[in-house]
Design a protein that fits this description.
elongated; 78 residues; 8% strand; 3 helices; two-stranded parallel ribbon
């Protein structure tokens, strides 16, 4: 919020609220765009998400690097 007020950043687009669907007071600003958290709510997107998750699990159990790993350092620890 401080970065928006001080103009360190020009604006923000947010799709996750602290207590969805209630919008936190003070977020109604000209440089903030709020949208409900449903960008991934299409059948196509949810299907792709499920396939990606399955590919990661299969890759891991086959001893391969999961294709979408976000923290590869955990593989070195084992």
């Amino acid at each position: 919020m401080q970065a928006l007020e001080s103009k360190n950043i020009a604006g923000a687009a947010l799709d996750v609220y602290e207590k969805e669907p209630i919008i936190t007071a003070g977020l109604k600003r000209p440089n903030v765009v709020l949208a409900p958290h449903l960008a991934s709510a299409s059948l196509e997107t949810r299907t792709k998400m499920a396939c990606m998750a399955a590919e990661n699990v299969v890759g891991f159990f086959k001893g391969r690097r999961p294709p979408n790993i976000l923290n590869p350092e955990v593989l070195k620890a084992s």
